[in-house]
Design goal:
Helix content is 63%, strand content 4%. With 700 residues, the protein is mainly alpha-helical.
Length: 700
């Protein structure tokens, strides 16, 4: 495009905009009795007030850089300018006319300023269409936006933004840049959750506009995040935020996540643990199990030191994490409170025995009831090649070769060197078990080797079988001697089936930590097998910990409370969990999108009232919509708005038009979500599509 052409186009656009403003100013003048020049000045008020400057500057303070204080100061200047404008214009008689009287759709129609008259005018001339569209936009600025400013900021002006900036500035001053950015990002996430904003609907209005207009939600988020700020510094350093990310639950509020994780992190730091190793272990698991592992590490920080030793023996983070969660707390010597973790840890502290410690970790719990476990443990701590014999012993026992297992113990007693052990293991594997009973009578390594040399090879080398610990069988065995608990032993299989693979570890947790409460737990599982709330409680690790405490103290009262909440039929299981645990920590992890009404089969006969929100509905269209069905219909549009939502109940259904102003959009959505009110989204403009939908949804 030539320079002259660009100049001509710029001039054309300027002329078009001026003409559009004149049309809009004339419409405002006629409706409100304002001088036309004064009405024209009102159209420029938002830009002159600095309101749009605030929106342009808010994104700057959502990114932490070295110039952050300068960005904050620049935004504060814009806020001060706009507040001064509000103060100056608050008593302007022309502004007051706009604020005090909301015009109706019919009045807007009388001056040619409804959506249908402008956008749907059908003009084929693009310049004429553009002129009408700009005129309409200017008209909305004067009759809707300017009154909104004074309604939204009447009492506290923009103090919510200044409070947010104070909080952001504190976060930046107290933390390294990455952690401060995380705080700002978490603030924005919590603000979006407060408004029920999804990625899909956020495009309806910019984040800057939402922060500016939704003062109450910003204030609420400031209060929420102020209490969390002190925890962020805990996660400074290279592995701090990655550890936090591994442990964060999406269905938990940010302050509750931090209040749970930060004290534990500080305890680990005070013990000088290796953060990198801690992160490797935690990220090997899903969030729920990672939290359980984190709690175990906080209670016993030496867990991480033991991992570092086992890592030398090529133990993977996942292998070790599974051992900690599944087998580490099982007792070898209950009277001495010796667990499998204790045995493994003590073995790693012996120079050169990391491989033996690994073998104990992998198969030691399968030998807890083995009468020879003491000898095997001694072998693991005294013989440099013990891990090979431990592997052979487990394999022999798993396949029922008891003579071969005893032979392995005898070999360990002689402690042969590597070459001798290799030869002996090969011959033992190839030998028949029934031919090895003599080995236990040998008195020297030479005698053992000579006897093996006389054996004929009669079978193939047996593969190594790794036997996994079966905590369930150990639990059943522990209950068998107690005759009074025989009925409980019969219930265990039913309980395990109800819990399924994903939750049967809860049964193990109760058995290991609260054996006296095992019968109560089993009875609860059977009784509440169909309860969504009960299952969510035992699925959630933190909630399960609370429940475990109640198994010992206050169990009856706690379960009565669960019954009352279930009877009340709370629709949101997370809200029900909050009520049960007396907390506000849990929230629905996913925010449901509004359904599209025109694509949603629905029977509107089951609702008391139909409420249509948004759009611009002239009197004739309003009458036609209300008359099309034999049900109460209420319509709240741009010019006839309802700001008090309290009258809407669960018996109503709300149909939201596409063009509802975002100042109300999220308020309506949030109210409906929190009160269990059916909310639909209608994307088609015009009266006929709405009438067709209402008729189709009420007459079948």
């Amino acid at each position: 495009m030539r320079k002259d052409d660009r100049l001509d186009l710029d001039e054309l656009m300027e002329d078009l905009q001026n003409e559009a403003k004149n049309i809009a100013a004339g419409a405002v003048s006629r409706l409100y009795g304002i001088d036309e020049d004064a009405a024209a000045a009102l159209l420029d008020a938002p830009e002159q007030s600095g309101y749009y400057d605030i929106q342009r500057k808010i994104p700057d303070v959502l990114t932490v850089t070295r110039e952050y204080p300068v960005k904050v100061a620049a935004l504060r200047q814009r806020i001060a300018k706009f507040e001064t404008w509000l103060d100056d214009k608050e008593h302007d008689p022309n502004i007051q006319k706009l604020v005090q009287r909301r015009i109706s759709s019919d009045e807007a129609s009388s001056v040619g300023m409804t959506e249908g008259q402008v956008i749907g005018s059908g003009s084929k001339n693009p310049v004429e269409h553009g002129r009408k569209l700009h005129a309409y936009i200017n008209f909305i600025v004067a009759t809707v936006n300017i009154p909104d400013y004074f309604e939204c900021f009447a009492n506290h002006r923009l103090d919510h933004l200044n409070s947010m900036l104070d909080l952001f500035s504190d976060a930046v001053a107290d933390n390294e840049a990455g952690v401060a950015q995380r705080f700002v990002d978490d603030f924005v996430m919590e603000f979006k959750r407060e408004l029920l904003v999804t990625e899909k609907t956020e495009s309806t209005a910019s984040l800057a506009s939402l922060l500016e207009l939704h003062a109450d939600s910003v204030r609420s988020t400031v209060r929420l995040m102020s209490g969390a700020l002190r925890h962020y510094q805990t996660f400074s350093g290279r592995h701090g935020l990655p550890i936090l990310d591994t442990l964060v639950r999406n269905d938990m509020r940010t302050p509750d996540n931090l209040a749970y994780v930060a004290p534990g992190m500080r305890r680990l730091d005070s013990r000088g643990v290796n953060r990198k190793a801690a992160h490797q272990l935690l990220q090997a698991l899903g969030t729920e199990e990672a939290l359980e592992l984190f709690d175990a590490m906080v209670a016993a920080p030496e867990i991480i030191d033991t991992y570092l030793q086992l890592h030398k023996a090529n133990v993977s983070p996942l292998q070790y994490a599974r051992f900690i969660l599944d087998d580490s707390t099982m007792y070898y010597e209950p009277a001495a409170k010796k667990t499998m973790l204790d045995l493994v840890r003590e073995t790693t502290l012996i120079a050169g025995q990391e491989q033996a410690a690994r073998q104990l970790m992998e198969s030691g719990t399968s030998l807890l009831s083995d009468p020879n476990f003491g000898q095997l443990l001694q072998l693991a701590r005294s013989y440099s090649l013990a891990h090979l014999l431990l592997e052979d012993y487990v394999s022999a026992q798993a396949s029922g070769q008891t003579n071969k297992a005893r032979a392995v113990l005898t070999v360990g007693h002689y402690a042969p060197d590597a070459a001798e052990l290799k030869e002996i293991r090969q011959k033992l594997r190839a030998a028949q078990d029934s031919k090895l009973d003599w080995i236990k009578e040998t008195t020297a390594l030479a005698e053992l080797k000579a006897g093996l040399a006389q054996l004929r090879k009669t079978q193939a080398v047996a593969p190594i079988k790794r036997a996994r610990a079966d905590w369930y069988q150990a639990m059943v065995a522990s209950l068998a001697p107690a005759g009074s608990q025989s009925s409980l032993a019969q219930q265990l299989e039913e309980v395990r089936n109800i819990l399924g693979d994903s939750l049967d570890r809860r049964l193990k947790d109760v058995w290991l930590n609260q054996p006296a409460a095992l019968e109560k737990f089993c009875s609860d599982v059977i009784k509440y097998r169909d309860s969504v709330l009960y299952r969510q409680m035992i699925k959630d690790y933190r909630a399960f910990n609370h429940y475990q405490e109640r198994l010992s103290v206050g169990h009856k009262e706690f379960m009565k409370k669960l019954d009352r909440i279930e009877t009340a039929d709370e629709k949101d299981v997370y809200m029900a969990l909050n009520r049960l645990l007396d907390t506000t920590a849990y929230r629905s992890p996913e925010i449901e999108e509004i359904q599209n009404a025109e694509n949603t089969p629905i029977d509107l006969n089951s609702y008391g009232r139909i409420i249509i929100w948004g759009g611009r509905t002239p009197s004739a269209a309003r009458t036609r919509i209300k008359a099309c069905i034999d049900k109460p219909v209420e319509i709240f549009d741009t010019f006839n708005r309802k700001t008090d939502l309290a009258g809407i109940s669960e018996s109503d259904v709300v149909i939201m038009r596409t063009d509802i102003e975002h100042t109300l959009y999220y308020s309506v959505k949030k109210y409906c979500k929190r009160h269990g009110i059916k909310l639909l989204h209608f994307n088609q403009a015009g009266t006929t599509p709405m009438v067709d939908f209402l008729v189709k949804s009420t007459y079948h």
